[in-house]
Amino acid sequence: MEIDLNGKWEGIIKLGKEYGENSGKEIFYNSEFTQQGNIISGISNDVSGFGINSEPADLNGKIKELKISFNKQYQTNHMITEDNMIEIDSSRKGPIIQYDGVFNKSTNSFEGNWMMPIGKKFFGLITLNATGTWNMKRVTAANHVDCPSRN
Predict the structure, then answer these.
(1) Using the 8-state DSSP alphabet, how is residue 1 labeled?
(2) First to last CA, the chain
């Protein structure tokens, strides 16, 4: 079974255990994908939730049968500070976030895990990562939430 990703999708990102007291908090997003063969690209915008970035993120990856993998990179770097405020550094892009998932036929949606490098330890030999889960479902007229388009 081949999945056609062309079009609009919406979903939820859930923060993993590395976020401490914020573990389990969610970010709601809208994405638009373009697919050529098994190569996918697109734009994603955070819509609401904890720790959103107001800038769009670029999406690039691939799909093979029911498996999807793509990288997401925000146009600006944003971090959650210790007092749960959002700090934005517009002088550089955000880190590359890796998404892997599988299409679930029963829910007609993608589900998977994400991972983002957040630092290095032991003289740069060990990479520390933030992780979590994600899902997305094709937007239909009944469930669509508009998001700002990228200029």
Answers:
(1) -
(2) 35
126-129 contact pairs (CB < 8 A, 24+): 128/18, 129/18
Smallest Cα–Cα separation from 27: which of 108, 142, 141, 147? Answer: 147
Nearest to 53 by CA among 78, 28, 73: 78
Q: From the first residue on, what is the mean pLDDT of each consecutive set of 10 residues in the chain (151 residues)?
A: 89 93 94 96 96 92 96 87 76 93 94 87 68 94 47 41
Predicted pLDDT at 124: 58
Tokens 């146009």, residue located: 75
Nearest CA to 15 among 60, 41, 46?
46
Please give the model's pTM, rounded to 2 decimal places: 0.83
What is d(CA 145, CA 151) in angstroms, rounded to the nearest whole number?
A: 19
Could you tell me the two tokens for 82?
Answer: 């210790």
**With b meaning 16 or more CB within 10 Å and e meaning fewer, what string describes 39-48?**
ebebbbbbbe
